């Protein structure tokens, strides 16, 4: 989505009002207009990223640090049992969030927040396959990084095949296009 059409960018630019609880050069914290519970805050990078996986590391670290800090402030202010942190593209069904942000959701004895799932039944070999797939992906990213920093591209062959994606088994048809691989750092 373009920044011009992003409701969160409009809030950041002051075109839509919001209850701002925190603001600095990189990050804005506002009360969620459809709160899950009392004190539900969303922490937003001021620059438009459609997905948390696009946020460059320094901005991400700043966002995470401030998310925890504001969570602490919510605990001081409202005395919930806890404050949960959540990243999702779709907080409620069909309600896609166009801008990367982290939810801070205070929890109370009488709240109606409910994240539940039915635990999946997996056998040992399933767990092993998943474990290995993730480890292979990590190694693939590390190796790609190592290659890109140590190898100096001299002359690119004319018929250069596409640069190898890190985790060897990426399905080309799957939409990972919204994820900025370059910001992922191990
Ligand atoms: Zn935006």
From TrEMBL:
One Gene Ontology MF term: adenylylsulfatase activity
GO BP terms, alphabetized: purine ribonucleotide metabolic process; sulfur compound metabolic process
Domain HIT intervals: 7-114
Residues covered by region (Disordered): 144-173
InterPro entries (alphabetical): Histidine_triad_HIT, HIT-like, HIT-like_sf
Name under which the protein is recorded: Histidine triad (HIT) protein
Species the sequence originates in: Candidatus Parvarchaeum acidophilus ARMAN-5
Lineage: Archaea, Candidatus Parvarchaeota, Candidatus Parvarchaeum
């Amino acid at each position: 989505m373009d920044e011009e059409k992003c409701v969160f960018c409009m809030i950041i630019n002051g075109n839509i009002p919001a209850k701002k609880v925190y603001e600095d050069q990189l990050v804005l914290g506002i009360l969620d207009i459809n709160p899950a519970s009392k004190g539900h805050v969303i922490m937003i990078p001021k620059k438009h990223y459609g997905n948390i996986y696009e946020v460059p590391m320094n901005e991400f670290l700043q966002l995470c640090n401030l998310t925890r800090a504001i969570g602490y402030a919510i605990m001081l202010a409202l005395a919930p049992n806890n404050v949960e942190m959540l990243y999702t593209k779709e907080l409620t069904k069909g309600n896609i969030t166009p801008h990367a942000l982290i939810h801070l959701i205070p929890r109370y004895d009488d709240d109606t927040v409910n994240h539940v799932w039915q635990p999946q039944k997996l056998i040992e070999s399933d767990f092993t396959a998943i474990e290995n797939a993730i480890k292979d992906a990590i190694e693939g990213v590390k190796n790609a990084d190592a290659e890109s920093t140590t190898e100096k591209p001299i002359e690119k062959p004319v018929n250069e095949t596409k640069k190898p994606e890190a985790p060897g088994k990426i399905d080309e048809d799957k939409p990972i296009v919204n994820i900025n691989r370059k910001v992922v750092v191990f």
